[in-house]
Write a structure and sequence with these properties.
Radius of gyration of chain B: 14 Å
Shape of chain B: globular
Distance between the termini of chain A: 31 Å
Distance between the termini of chain B: 41 Å
Number of helices of chain B: 0
Helix content of chain B: under 10%
Order of helices and strands of chain B: EEEEEEEEEEE
Number of strands of chain A: 11
Shape of chain A: globular
Oligomer: heterodimer
Number of helices of chain A: 0
Structural class of chain A: mainly beta
Strand content of chain B: over 45%
Order of helices and strands of chain A: EEEEEEEEEEE
Largest interface: A-B, 27 and 23 residues
Chain lengths: 113, 113
């Protein structure tokens, strides 16, 4: 396995619900990422954290709220989502300044009803 | 910013034949080019990468070539097997430390037994 875990693996939520996605990496990396993967679209970078600080927000709507309490954990808080937000949400990690290799988790399949 | 184009979007080959997937990038400053394989229900897995100081890299049945002048790079899989069936993504970035990867749209490879 890649050393990056994500929970839950599947999530169904209504548009008025609030839920959170969790990512944990066991690789000792200091950079973590959230990506959105929709059908027939490239992987879309959402957020980047380096050493717990957010360094990139790729024009993501405010109904997605990331949180990085430490270099090993990353959360994505979800509220008042839209059906078009249904997608596979992938977390990744890397070590800044060394190689650039990113390692992905298995993803959370999100369905918004 | 960087833009990555990937072709073809789908590819079917007979078992034992070779498969080639091609990508072009727009930013001549990019210097790191990884390839990812994504199997059904899993996150993308790094399978091989190449940096701009080399023109070719091999790992068993997989090879990647890079043409910096033309700004394109390719993935070559020889002696394909059914387990090679997956979606393959190329990516490019300026590996200055924190610059995120820019991904192609992916190629769905089917190896027919």
């Amino acid at each position: 396995e890649t050393g990056v875990t994500q929970t839950p693996r599947h999530l169904v939520m209504g548009m008025t619900n609030k839920k959170s996605l969790k990512c944990e990496q066991h690789l000792g990396h200091n950079a973590m990422y959230w990506y959105k993967q929709s059908a027939k679209k490239p992987l879309e970078l959402m957020f980047v954290y380096n050493f717990k600080e957010q360094t990139e927000n790729n024009s993501v709507p405010s109904r997605f709220s990331p949180e990085c309490p430490n270099s090993s954990h990353l959360f994505l808080h979800l509220h008042t989502l839209q059906p078009e937000d249904s997608a596979l949400y992938l977390c990744a990690s890397s070590q800044p300044g060394q190689g650039g290799e990113q390692y992905f988790g298995p993803g959370t399949r999100l369905t918004v009803t | 910013g960087e833009n990555v184009e990937q072709h073809p979007s789908t590819l079917s080959v007979q078992e034992g034949d070779s498969a080639v997937i091609k990508c072009t990038y727009s930013d001549s400053a990019s210097n790191y080019f990884p390839w990812y394989k994504q199997e059904l229900g899993k996150g993308p897995q790094l399978i091989i990468d190449i940096r701009s100081n080399v023109g070719e890299k091999k790992d068993q049945r997989i090879a990647v070539t890079l043409n910096k002048t033309a700004k394109h790079f390719s993935l070559h899989i020889t002696e394909t097997q059914p387990e090679d069936s997956a979606v393959y993504f190329c990516a490019a970035t300026l590996n200055s430390g924190n610059t995120p990867l820019v991904f192609g749209k992916g190629t769905r490879l089917s190896v027919i037994a």
